[in-house]
Write a structure and sequence with these properties.
2 domains; about 20% helix; 11 strands; 8-stranded mixed β-sheet; alpha+beta; Aminopeptidase
Length: about 230
């Protein structure tokens, strides 16, 4: 298997195993950190195990290789195709921090509410109150307001996921996503790791940016959101 096959499972059983809630063939981040969950294989037993480690009515996000098959106790909220993309460059373009007229700021716990607000508005993927604890998060402010951000999420041996790349709709078109992504990629590459990411397959604008930065499509997944019914 490739290290990025079932990447959430790999993360929750290797580099981020200390964060995992575990039962049988199911793993999940605590909801306050991230709503991503994973199954070793999408069997009825694994879904039953997953139900034992999440709260009633909680939504979980799964990356499945095949379309979701109905399981007892779970309600399908949405399932959409998503691309897994991997950086294939040599890192030369990211040897130095990106030039920007805007100050790139480190983000953390004190910024959590604003990060939640920005991701709720732009919907780059699941983001919780403590998601910033999963890795480096950086942002750009204008007039004291957080208007763009990017960070890290899943970590598997040799790879780190770029995540939560988003810009406030009132400030798109200034290259903020490229600036912040370039810095996150630079940091990952400097650690000797390879960046990867996930993006909705119909989200053509960011896909174009990621391709220009050196990311290439590796596989198509089904980004599936389920809600536990009790």
């Amino acid at each position: 298997m490739h290290p990025l096959d079932n990447s959430a499972w790999k993360a929750l059983t290797t580099r981020q195993a200390d964060l995992a809630r575990s039962r049988g063939d199911a793993r999940a981040f605590p909801a306050e950190i991230c709503l991503l969950s994973a199954l070793r294989e999408p069997t009825p037993q694994a879904y039953e195990a997953l139900a034992g480690i999440v709260e009633a009515e909680q939504k979980v996000h799964l990356a499945l290789e095949k379309p979701y098959e109905t399981q007892p106790g779970w309600k399908l909220v949405i399932s959409v195709p998503a691309l897994q993309m991997v950086y294939e460059g040599d890192g030369a373009a990211f040897a130095e921090p990106p030039h920007s007229d805007e100050l790139i700021l480190e983000l953390g716990g004190n910024d959590a509410s604003e990060m939640m607000e920005l991701t709720h508005l732009t919907k780059p993927g699941p983001f919780s109150q403590r998601t910033h604890e999963l890795g480096n998060f950086i942002g750009i402010r204008r007039e004291g307001r957080l208007i763009a951000m990017a960070g890290e999420r899943l970590k598997v041996p040799g790879f780190t996921e770029v995540s939560a790349v988003c810009t406030h709709p009132d400030h798109v078109g200034h290259g903020y996503a490229r600036i912040l992504m370039s810095e996150i990629v630079r940091r990952i590459f400097a650690r000797g790791e390879t960046p990867f990411l996930h993006v909705r397959a119909d989200n053509s604008r960011p896909i174009g940016l990621y391709q220009r930065l050196g990311f290439r499509k590796r596989m198509v997944l089904q980004h599936t959101v389920l809600q536990l019914q009790r």
